[in-house]
Amino acid sequence: MTPTITAFEASPDRGQGLARDTRVRWAFEEVGQPYDVRLVSFKAMKEPAHLALHPFGQIPTYEEGDLALFETGSILFHIAERHAGLLPEDANARARAITWMFAAVSTVEPPILELANARLLEGDRPWAKKRLPVVVDRVRDRLKQLSTRLGEADWLDGAFSAGDLMMAHVLQRLKPSGILNEFPNLSAYVARAEARPAYKRAFDAQLAVFTGKPTG
User: Fold this and answer.
1) 189-197: average pLDDT
2) What is the C-alpha separation between 18 and 23, in angstroms, rounded?
3) The predicted structure's pLDDT at residue 132
4) What are the residue boundaries of the structural domains of the chain, listed by start?
5) Do the beta carbons of residue 35 and residue 174 sit within 8 Å?
6) Which of 13, 17, 61, 150 could form a Cys-Cys staple with 53, CB 3.0–4.6 A?
7) Sheet of 61-64, strand order
8) What pLDDT digit, counting tens, does each position of 127-161 carry?
9) Dihedral sign computed on CA atoms, order 82, 83, 87, 89
10) Is the pTM value of this prediction over 0.85?
């Protein structure tokens, strides 16, 4: 049975590949597995049918037979465990790749999302100008640590893995801010990820939703 994922009918990122369904699309492309997409509106995301799949009314979700999943970390882990290509065969390397998946969403992404909220949702608040530098410093601190760990390596732990997929997509959110450019090895790391054919296919599929033009 072909899995079905949900995605924004009208993505807030306007097809820039930042919506979280891109991570799942990318994972399917990396492992060479087909998938279907069901587009949902913001209204439909808050209705009972979707809330039964995702209790927090977000996207993406994953459905395959009797299995329904939400949260990109969980969905990616499920895909990577079932299909070769995103997790190493060596048990220790596999565990480290999974650890990097958790690090991406639990340690690196929160301050990045906090920065996005500070600029887009809280920018008109009277305390915003004082708070923003503090938030930016939190992001820089995380990037310094990650940059030091990556060093001159192409990927976080040997070959490209689900950990790199998740981390690279998290870091993409910083590109408009210019902060990522302060760390050349991280900027190059994201560029390498974006150059992967699987990522390009996933990006094109998400962009096609915005433009209305089918990928081909």
Assistant:
1) 98
2) 9
3) 75
4) 4-85+198-211, 91-196
5) no
6) 61
7) 36-40, 4-8, 61-64, 67-70
8) 666 777 788 889 999 999 999 999 999 999 999 99
9) positive
10) yes
Q: Which amino acid is at 86?
A: L
CA distance 167 to 171: 6
Helix axes 21-31, 162-172, angle to 10 degrees: 150
Superfamily of domain 4-85+198-211: Glutaredoxin (3.40.30.10)
Containing 39, the helix (H) or strand (E) segment is strand 36-40
Note whether 4 and 147 are within 8 A (CB).
Answer: no
Tell me how far apart the alpha carbons of residues 137 and 157 are, in angstroms, rounded to a whole number. 26
Q: What's the CA dihedral at 71, 76, 82, 87 to 10 degrees?
A: -140
Encoded tokens for 37: 């997409």
Phi first, then psi, for residue 2 (nearest 5°) are: -75, 125
